[in-house]
Amino acid sequence: MNSLSWMTDTVQLLATALYQFPLLQLAIDLALKSVVVLLAFLLLDLALGRKLSSSSRHLLWLSSLFCLAILPWLPALISLLPEIAARGQGGANTLIELTVVNRAPEPTTGVSAGALLLMLYLLPAALMLTRLIYALIGSQRIFKHARPVDEASTMMLLGTLKQTLSISRDVKLRLSNVIESPVSFGLIRPTILLPTQSADWNTSIMTDVLLHELGHIKRLDWLTTLFAYGLACLYWMNPLVWRAVRHLREESENSCDAAVLNAGRSDTDYAESLLGVATHCLHARRTQRSSYPLMQTMLDQNTLTNRISRVLEENKMQASDVKKEIRKTAVLLTLVSAGMLSVLGATQVLSAQEQRPAPATRAVNEEMLPLHNEQPVYPRVAAEGGVEGWVHVRFTVNAAGTIDEDSIAVVDAEPADIFNNSAMAATRKFRFSPRMRDGEPVAVPNVQYVFRYKLAWDPEN
Questions:
Q1: pLDDT tens, 419-447?
Q2: Is 95 helix (H, G, I), strand (E, B) or coil?
Q3: Computed over its alpha carbons, how large is the radius of gyration of the chain?
Q4: Residues 281, 195: contact at Cβ < 8 Å?
Q5: Phi-psi region of 326 (alpha: psi -120 to 50; beta: other; left: phi over 0)
């Protein structure tokens, strides 16, 4: 019995905390929906991954992150649909506001459970975003202290390879003694940084390295990496997000390896180049401790062995075949993403919408007048938690002046699902004088009410 009472009290405390902090509701709702999204893409990768090229798998994981980016905006997009439909029907017949007032208890001092939970989410997210900004600053600092490559043969090779890959942007090539591996970063003015050990590389190794890094630049991998890590900071509670980011970077490297081979390089020569770079940078990898996630490094100790095996074992696809596969994959992913987002947008796990309905002029149709407006009951939990809000309801008044219960729908609410039941229960009891047309009563669709729930206690007094 004590255990049951403790569980009941805990649930009640959590419910009150969620009511008081819509942002916390939003964070939990997004976390739960992000699990659903990433599980769906994980299953898709398990089912089709072996049949897809690296570029297509990269697109798959990038699509999963795009879905996560759209999730916070789904409530706003879904709430626009009823308004668009209503405009297509000629707009609302009437919109009336009712205010529901209840005296709430004095708030207690100190940190509430909702504020504590919100801090536990926001603090790690803020720290991770700070680290991301620090990584960006660190990348710029490394670039600032790097010296330009002045060898004419290397610069001529860079220009030739840019033409081969149809890259028109200006690409800078610099040397740095603080990096462990060739890296590329930047969007408008991309830069390739080479370690000082690159002075010992032969022409074959330098060609493969530049082709690989130019592949990242052509694919805009620095931008997608920045996007992926930014999302991971916001969805840090979901471990699948970090797995998606890892897969995205791995497939990015695999795609650039494939691009080198598609440029005409031999698979055995390229595998030797990877080993050669790893050998020349062995000392740097042992001594270098800094890590800048926004830089797309060519060498990764955890994946290098698998990449070499992949280069030697995989069959090369023609560039035209790769493009066809990517187009088919893009269509499939678009359909899957649209269907999944539609379902999630219509499903409320926990939600805190911060949009309010667009301002509307109060208009009462003189042919249909309200006879009885039921006063909604202020939910006890909301009153005790000091929660205020509103509910925008749409319904149809039938020819008898009563409410068609099947037509009652919540257009929007803030916070969601707290006052909805109260507003809908009151709406069912409304009564109107029917609209008359040619001496006959007719139904009136799209009647709209906004119930505003206010506490009599003023926190400023």
A1: 888 999 999 999 888 888 877 888 888 88
A2: strand
A3: 30
A4: yes
A5: alpha
